[in-house]
Sequence to fold (419 residues):
Amino acid sequence: MKQSVEAIPVARSQRDGAQADPRLAWWREARFGMFIHWGLYALLAGRWKGESVPGIGEWIMHRARIPVAEYELLAAEFNPIRFDAAEWVSLAKRAGQKYIVITSKHHDGFCLFDSAVSDYDIIDATPFGRDPLRELADECARQEVRLGFYYSQTQDWHHPDGNGNDWDYDESQQDFGRYLETYVRPQVRELLTNYGPIGLIWFDTPKIISSAQSRELVDLVHELQPDCLVSGRVGNTMGDYASAGDNVIPDGRVDLDWETPATINDTWGFKADDHNWKPAGELIQKLVDIVSKGGNYLLNVGPTAEGVIPESSVERLLAVGDWMQVNGESVYGTVAGPLQGLDGCRCTAKDDLVFLHVFDWPSGGRLEVPWQAAPVHTAFLLADDKRTPLSVENRGVSVVISVPQRAPDPVDTVIVLKQ
Fold:
């Protein structure tokens, strides 16, 4: 097995001093969260006027260049009567996810919450007549899951002063500063005053936002809720933690607090013809890969317009949860392990324990890994409740562990090393 300790930069890096900020303690402990992309785009499900629109589902307004006057009519049809906040939060818990982040307003400008700033929201513009963010906030409190809100602070294809819509509006005539002051900041204030304690605000696609404007948003969030975190996509290196690109996993350890947002299939918002579902085993290994490099995994679901999380997503999340029931100790609250760049193996650590995640089980009942730290005194399988010791041979530059001939877990068998 080869080893490398080279770290690579993560986009939209963490602000200076944030790594010493105690507000991040819960987020580092969590390591695994649920992203939810839900809005009017779920009604279209990837099709416009009978034609399939390429690309991700929540970008259909932009990709098909749908006029505001036509797109906003979808609100009258949005009636997700099968939405059940308790089911959604319970699914996250059973999957082993410790926090939820939901799109309060995506780039299409529709607000999934009751806003006094705009009538283009789920209470005023739809027949549904309920505030799903309120219901999720209440349910997250009951089930002890942290809640966060995604909010598109720069792109807004519905608002005349928002960024990104060049088919309805003349961008040279737009006043982005006015949009931030009279629309974004008041709505962020609503989100952070009307729904109880919020774990984080997940801003996105900073684009034209200036450093001063990013700073003002961060300051507003911390003023309203001092413990609320701000994602790195607020822009201009102002976030409390950094963000990797969508579905991007760095090649090596990153010495920042960072997160990878990722999809289970190819889209974020629901798209009826996207059946490219990643196997549960791949999702488990991606989670472990990310955590082994010091990051968090924010794994997305895209509910239907009726408010149902697709069964293919549910099945995979429950399978990940089954693995986490047995192996969660090797994920929650861990840091990047001392062994990096190993083929077929990842490494996490916590206190005096090192967790070897073996994806490719060795033949011959013998696993050898590079090891130049203090000698390993004890090794056992994490899934073994009896903690039966495995034979260990310290060789100075490596350690050899006697293991079962067959992998106890074909996806990821975790071996605990104690020095």
Summary: Residues 176-193 form the longest helix (18 residues). Residues 351-418 form a domain with the Immunoglobulin-like fold (CATH 2.60.40.1180). DSSP finds ten helices and 18 strands in the chain.
